[in-house]
Amino acid sequence: MTDGAVEVRDVVVRYGATTAVDGVSLGVPRGRVLALLGHNGAGKTSLLQVCEGFRAADGGECRVLGLDPIADHDALMPRLGIMLQSGGVYPWATAGEILRLFASFSANPLSPDMLIDRLGLRKFERTRFRRLSGGEQQRLSLAIALVGRPELVFLDEPTAGMDTESRHTTWQLIEELRSDGVSVLLTTHLLDEAERLADDVVIMREGRVAATGTPAELTAAAGIDLLEVRADAGLQPQSTQFAAVEKTPGEYVITGNLDAAAIAEAIAWFAKAGAQVTAVNTRRRTLEDVYLALTADATRKAGAAR
Ligand SMILES: Nc1ncnc2c1ncn2[C@@H]1O[C@H](COP(=O)(O)OP(=O)(O)OP(=O)(O)O)[C@@H](O)[C@H]1O
């Protein structure tokens, strides 16, 4: 294994008969942000828990800052920032007390007051944790993860439940962490979050790695552009030349090797189907298109297997 912040090789996590993580390998180089994407139940949190040392892998190997997350837990903890989902902190203590307590565990903490202000928590400083809203608890959890100046941060859906303003503040904080050389492994369902923050993206599907690369690599399709057609909902346009995903009802995104002949064939398909076409557009692929194409593929295969 190399000297990355996180090195995961062939990791397996099982819960009884369920294989949640099925031989995943990935690496977070030092000072980079890796976003783990995937549908509900894809295995993201289970993999994160192995890296955090909260769960032993049933197979494979994991090194975090060069150490074993379970055997070297005590040495690692002060160097890690872990954003806990709700719970895990003292529900009866106030936001300010909790953050100052976590700061006291560190030899050289960030200023709790600075984090309280940056994350818009000043108004809630004297509010007990259990009285905070979901989004406020998330912001406090992020502050707790960062207050010890960690070298590596694990963030499980960091902006889930946050309002737009808090989400943007969180993104700025994560960008600042990266500029300071901190490594970040985060999970998210937000494609724009991954596209904005991540140096590297790993898309998981059913416990396995479905795709990996930088956002630019993942969105650089063979035919570069992508065709969007607005027409009647519920159609299933496809041929050997192209594949379409109905992104929202009546909004078709067509990928493939889109030369002029393939575009003509796609449009002809709608004409032959007698569809009412209201708009045709070409544009570059986004991470969302890649993600949808991969998950639609999984859904098609699951349907075919039934
Ligand atoms: N403690 C557990 N006991 C049994 N099954 C579990 C347990 N934790 C997770 N699973 C199962 O393992 C699979 C992966 O779950 P995991 O939480 O890792 O996925 P995820 O990608 O983080 O999902 P989400 O996006 O919904 O958070 C799912 O099928 C889930 O039901």
TrEMBL record:
Entry-linked Gene3D superfamilies: P-loop containing nucleotide triphosphate hydrolases (3.40.50.300)
GO molecular function annotation: ATP binding
Keywords on record: Antibiotic resistance, ATP-binding, Nucleotide-binding, Transport
Subcellular locations according to the entry: Cell membrane
Membrane topology of this protein: Peripheral membrane protein
Keyword Nucleotide-binding: yes
Pfam families referenced in this protein's UniProt entry, alphabetically: ABC_tran
Domain ABC transporter: 6-231
Protein name: ABC transporter ATP-binding protein
Organism: Paractinoplanes durhamensis
Taxonomic path: Bacteria, Bacillati, Actinomycetota, Actinomycetes, Micromonosporales
